[in-house]
């Protein structure tokens, strides 16, 4: 009788572990992270990254970055300041619920600082541009 009880308990434990593993795998499979592949920083070198994941997931930049919590719709916003010295930087963003996580990379790019060059045409040139010289022969 004891052997039967022990076998029954072991069977129940195995079944419980199987369901637990399947539920964990299903959660990991369903954990998503939608992000743009690249984002431009503003004039102050700050990029705003909007994304979507599972509701209430923790989302963070890199290993030690500050995390934010996704809202009830799974939407979140992160900010990242790019170095003055770099034209672009690839960062890793991770979404995590419990032990399940998914990561993606985003490229942060600086805005082009190509300002239009000043015109070399003087005011005198512009004043004379509309005049036509006519000569009668």
TrEMBL record:
Keywords: Signal. Residues 104-114 have a biased composition (Basic residues). Residues 104-132 are annotated as: Disordered. Residues 1-25 form the signal peptide. It comes from the Bacteria. This is Bacterial Ig domain-containing protein.
């Amino acid at each position: 009788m004891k052997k039967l009880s022990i076998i029954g308990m072991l069977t129940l434990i195995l079944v419980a572990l199987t369901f637990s593993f399947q539920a964990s795998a299903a959660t990991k499979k369903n954990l998503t992270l939608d992000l743009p592949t690249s984002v431009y920083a503003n004039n102050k070198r700050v990029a705003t990254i909007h994304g979507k994941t599972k509701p209430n997931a923790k989302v963070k930049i890199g290993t030690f970055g500050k995390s934010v919590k996704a809202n009830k719709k799974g939407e979140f916003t992160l900010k990242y300041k790019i170095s003055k010295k770099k034209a672009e930087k690839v960062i890793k963003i991770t979404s995590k619920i419990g032990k399940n996580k998914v990561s993606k990379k985003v490229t942060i790019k600086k805005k082009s600082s190509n300002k239009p060059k000043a015109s070399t045409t003087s005011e005198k040139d512009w004043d004379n541009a509309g005049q036509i010289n006519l000569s009668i022969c």
